[in-house]
From TrEMBL:
The protein's name: Inter-alpha-trypsin inhibitor heavy chain H4
Species per Swiss-Prot/TrEMBL record: Myotis brandtii (Brandt's bat)
Family to which this protein belongs: Belongs to the ITIH family.
Top-rank lineage group of the source organism: Eukaryota
UniProt key word Magnesium: no
Length: 456
């Protein structure tokens, strides 16, 4: 979470206007883009108004709003409108929240505000069968790619759970609840194991086991019995997890073409064994050696999130902060759902050298259901009128889907296919966002929110 603070002096009875302009990368998760706004005025506001504008050239296929403070009176202050087009889906949407003072009041007798919490907008865009679209402006392009109709690849997952003393109480209770739900979502073709750690790391089973009904039930009993005590030995726990995957791979215990994942949940800094964060990061990266993806969950505000984020990014994964709240168990489950369904591995993007000068990223180790791969690039001054893109990857099987054969051709290698070229015609290049692009070199210049029309 990024925070900033501004202090100003305001003369008595003076009127001051504060204007905040910012840019935010909206990532597609679980099939939607989500914008979360904290609305916490802490008092009744005479002129309270929020306006959110969405512009998507591909068309808006889904739009909903949610808030943690909505009442019947406040619902009357919320309007959602979309422009109607003659053909296809609406491209623009406008959400306005403009409550009166009386609508904000908890009751006629109380001067406290009921407006205190989160306001959330979720939406998705229309997608072609090719799964790709390109948007161009001022010599730059953004390529969005989210193919559909693909089957889930079997996964091998090791859950590495912090059971140190700092997890005592509500944290360990919510971890148990979430872990039990997550175990229930494993597929029969998946393999898994559990490692709990405090001063030392211990594994549930000697090796990874299939996610059979019996094994899942045994794992749920184990998860329900974990207790919090002792220190935090992240280094040994992670190395043990990698050793288990290495052993299973060497002995060919895992399904051919499957994907191996490590999920680390911790709430604190390492306090036992190797405690130097840089050395732990190096040890884990050397042990993984690019073979597996690591995802880190940081529980609470005291966790060293920068350490976990680098640990994950160095190993082909990502990190997420889990906030201590009543819905922490749901946050854990939601994160797992983001990585529960891998669809593609070793995805690469190729563009003609005579058209594209530079790109932000041209390869992705994994693509998960409901997510999106985004490549931003700079076009050459004299680029062709038609920009083609070749996207290749590996998958296990393809679900029946009308039109899929037009862009996905079988190239049998065991149980894998290869994605064939996706050619984007000039009509696709006409999909232009009206949002300002940041200077070249800005990290992830692929989505923006705030001052312009576009949120993505």
């Amino acid at each position: 979470m990024e925070q900033f603070q501004v202090s100003v002096s305001v003369a008595p009875a003076a009127k001051v206007t504060f204007e905040l302009v910012y840019e935010e990368l909206l990532k597609r998760r679980l099939g939607v883009y989500e914008l979360l706004l904290k609305v916490q005025p802490h008092q009744l506001v005479k002129h309270l108004q929020m306006d959110i504008h969405i512009f998507e050239p591909q068309g808006i296929s889904f739009l909903e709003t949610e808030s943690t403070f909505m009442t019947n009176e406040l619902a009357d202050a919320l309007t959602v409108s979309q422009n109607q087009t003659k053909v296809g889906l609406p491209q623009r949407a406008h959400i306005r929240f403009k409550p009166t003072v009386s609508q904000q009041q908890k009751s006629a007798e109380q001067q406290d505000t009921v407006v205190d919490g989160d306001f959330i907008i979720r939406y998705d865009v229309n997608r072609t069968l090719s799964g790709g679209s390109i948007q161009i402006e001022n010599g730059y392009f953004v390529h969005y790619f989210a193919p559909e109709g693909l089957s889930t690849i079997p996964k091998n997952v090791i859950f590495v759970i912090d059971t140190s003393g700092s997890m005592m109480g509500k944290k360990i209770q919510q971890t148990r609840e979430a872990l039990i739900k997550i175990l229930e979502d494993l597929r029969p073709e998946d393999h898994f194991n559990l490692i709990s750690f405090s001063n030392k790391a211990s594994q549930w089973k000697p090796s990874l086991v299939p996610a059979s009904t019996q094994n899942v039930e045994e794992a749920k009993k184990y998860a329900n019995s974990i207790q919090a005590q002792g220190g935090t030995n992240i280094n040994d726990a992670m190395l043990l997890a990698v050793q288990l995957l290495d052993k299973a791979t060497r002995e060919e215990q895992l399904p051919s073409g499957s994907v191996s994942l490590l999920l680390l949940l911790t709430d604190g800094d390492p306090t036992v064994g190797e405690t130097n964060p840089t050395k732990i990061q190096r040890n884990v990266q050397e042990a993984i050696g690019g073979q597996y993806s690591l995802f880190c969950l940081g529980f609470g505000f005291d966790v060293s999130y920068a350490f976990l984020e680098k640990l994950a990014l160095d190993n082909g994964g990502l990190a997420r902060r889990i906030y201590e709240d009543s819905d922490s168990a749901l946050q854990l489950q939601d994160f797992y759902q983001e990585v529960a369904n891998p669809l593609l591995t070793t995805v690469t993007f190729e563009y003609p050298g005579n058209a594209v000068e530079e790109v932000t990223q041209d390869n992705f180790p994994l693509f998960f259901k409901g997510s999106e791969m985004v490549v931003a690039g700079k076009l050459r001054a004299q680029s062709p009128d038609v920009l083609s893109a070749t996207v290749s990857g590996q998958l296990v099987s393809v679900a029946s889907h009308p039109g899929v054969e037009g862009w996905l051709q079988q190239a049998f290698r065991g149980a894998r296919f290869k994605l064939q070229p996706v050619r984007l015609q000039p009509t696709d290049l006409g999909q232009v966002t009206k949002c300002p692009l940041p200077p070249w070199g800005t990290p992830d210049p692929t989505a923006w929110a705030g001052g312009g029309d576009s949120m993505r």
